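Q: How would the C-alpha cells look for this protein?
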Amino acid sequence: MSVWKKIEEKAEAGQRLSFEEGVYLFREAELHSLGQLADRVRAGKVGKRASYVLNRYLNYSNVCILSCQFCAFARKKREPGTFELSVEEMTETARKSVAQGITE
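A: Here is the predicted structure in C-alpha cell form.
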C-alpha cells in the first residue's frame, strides 16, 4: 500500500497523523488530492457548517525603531503620519469593537 493511501485511510478514519506523515504531505502530496482529502475529512467532522471569528487588532502606535521592511505602515517618531493612542483611546476603541460584535 502506498504512503499516500495509508495516510488517506488514517485521516478518513479520524486518526491523528504523525509529524513524519505531515512532512510527507508537505513535500510529496499532489496539492489537488490533498485538498480533496482535507475537504472530505472536514465534511465528515462538521458537515456543511462554517464559522468565522470577528476580531480586531488594536495598534496603539505605528512608531517603529527597527526599520525591518516587514510592514508598510511603520513610521519613525515625529515623521508625518505617526500616531500613538492613549490608554483611554484604546479602551474606547475596544468598547466600540465589543458593541460591533467583535469577540477577539
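The chain has two domains: 3-46, 52-104.

The CA atoms of residues 56 and 104 lie 7 Å apart.

Upvote if useful.
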